[in-house]
């Protein structure tokens, strides 16, 4: 399996974990709003990575990866807000935050590698 295929699987698994987290949130207004934001950004990481894999040029690849970077960072923000507002216990989302941090680092590294080619 190629690194690209492995990363597609990781970003999809991340999106699925985000879906499960959002499904577990309460039905109050704050949970719905933050959950919807997280759902959009967390599932967007994998979708945009797939788009990057179909890029027609290095510039388009970097641009699409830039969107992945923004969406992944935004996902981290929304998860942190859930924890900081006591809607979710930190220990329950620590592995998800760790995965988001790793994905973000890998995306940034890919952008930098593409720039240096």
UniProtKB/TrEMBL annotation:
Pfam families: 23S_rRNA_IVP (PF05635). This is Four helix bundle protein. PANTHER family: FOUR HELIX BUNDLE PROTEIN.
């Amino acid at each position: 399996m190629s690194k690209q295929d492995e990363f597609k699987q990781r970003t999809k698994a991340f999106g699925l974990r985000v879906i499960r987290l959002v499904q577990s949130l309460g039905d109050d207004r704050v949970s719905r709003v933050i959950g919807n934001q997280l759902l959009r950004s967390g599932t967007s990481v994998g979708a945009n990575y797939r788009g990057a894999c179909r890029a027609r040029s290095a510039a388009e690849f970097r641009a699409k990866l830039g969107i992945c970077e923004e969406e992944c960072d935004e996902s981290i923000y929304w998860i942190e807000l859930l924890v900081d507002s006591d809607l979710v216990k930190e220990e329950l989302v620590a592995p998800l935050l760790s995965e988001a941090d790793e994905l973000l680092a890998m995306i940034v590294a890919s952008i930098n590698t593409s720039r240096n080619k």
